[in-house]
Amino acid sequence: MELYINNRWTECYGNSYIAEAIAWSETGNHASIYTTGVTAEEADAKLMNALQELELIPQKATKDR
User: Is residue 65 part of a domain?
Assistant: First the structure.
Protein backbone atom coordinates (compact mmCIF):
# COMPACT_ATOMS: atom_id res chain seq x y z
CA MET A 1 0.00 0.00 0.00
CA GLU A 2 1.17 3.52 -0.75
CA LEU A 3 0.00 6.48 1.32
CA TYR A 4 0.02 9.99 -0.12
CA ILE A 5 -0.17 13.01 2.18
CA ASN A 6 0.52 16.58 1.10
CA ASN A 7 -0.39 19.61 3.21
CA ARG A 8 -0.60 21.66 -0.01
CA TRP A 9 -3.75 19.69 -0.78
CA THR A 10 -5.49 21.32 2.19
CA GLU A 11 -8.01 23.78 0.79
CA CYS A 12 -10.65 26.15 2.11
CA TYR A 13 -14.28 25.39 1.30
CA GLY A 14 -16.75 27.86 2.76
CA ASN A 15 -15.75 28.39 6.40
CA SER A 16 -13.72 25.17 6.77
CA TYR A 17 -10.41 23.77 5.64
CA ILE A 18 -10.29 20.20 4.37
CA ALA A 19 -7.17 17.99 4.53
CA GLU A 20 -6.89 14.81 2.46
CA ALA A 21 -4.82 11.62 2.37
CA ILE A 22 -5.05 8.94 -0.32
CA ALA A 23 -4.06 5.29 0.10
CA TRP A 24 -3.48 3.07 -2.96
CA SER A 25 -3.22 -0.70 -2.77
CA GLU A 26 -1.15 -2.92 -5.03
CA THR A 27 -4.38 -4.28 -6.55
CA GLY A 28 -5.61 -0.86 -7.63
CA ASN A 29 -8.03 -0.18 -4.79
CA HIS A 30 -7.88 3.20 -3.12
CA ALA A 31 -9.34 5.09 -0.20
CA SER A 32 -9.45 8.77 0.65
CA ILE A 33 -9.52 10.17 4.16
CA TYR A 34 -10.71 13.73 4.76
CA THR A 35 -10.68 15.87 7.89
CA THR A 36 -11.93 19.40 8.50
CA GLY A 37 -10.79 22.27 10.68
CA VAL A 38 -11.27 25.98 11.25
CA THR A 39 -7.67 26.50 10.06
CA ALA A 40 -5.46 24.58 7.63
CA GLU A 41 -3.18 23.64 10.52
CA GLU A 42 -6.09 22.19 12.51
CA ALA A 43 -7.30 20.14 9.55
CA ASP A 44 -3.77 18.83 8.91
CA ALA A 45 -3.28 17.95 12.61
CA LYS A 46 -6.59 16.07 12.70
CA LEU A 47 -5.59 14.16 9.57
CA MET A 48 -2.23 13.14 11.04
CA ASN A 49 -3.93 12.03 14.29
CA ALA A 50 -6.48 9.97 12.34
CA LEU A 51 -3.74 8.28 10.31
CA GLN A 52 -1.88 7.46 13.53
CA GLU A 53 -5.04 5.97 15.10
CA LEU A 54 -5.52 3.83 11.98
CA GLU A 55 -1.86 2.78 12.30
CA LEU A 56 -1.09 4.03 8.79
CA ILE A 57 1.77 6.18 10.12
CA PRO A 58 3.89 5.71 13.25
CA GLN A 59 2.80 7.18 16.58
CA LYS A 60 4.75 10.18 17.79
CA ALA A 61 7.48 9.30 20.26
CA THR A 62 6.78 10.25 23.86
CA LYS A 63 9.35 11.00 26.53
CA ASP A 64 9.36 8.98 29.73
CA ARG A 65 9.33 11.14 32.85
Answer: no
Mean pLDDT across the stretch 27-47?
93
pLDDT of residue 65: 43
Q: Is 1 exposed, middle or buried (0-12, 13-18, 19+ CB in 10 A)?
A: exposed
Query: Residue 41 domain-assigned?
Result: yes
Phi, then psi, of 31 in degrees rounded to 5 = -140, 145
Instruction: Work out the average pLDDT over 24-35.
Output: 91
Which residue range forms the structural domain that includes residue 28?
A: 2-53
Which helix (H) or strand (E) segment is 34 a member of? strand 30-37
Structural domain count, the chain: 1
pLDDT of 48 higher than 80: yes
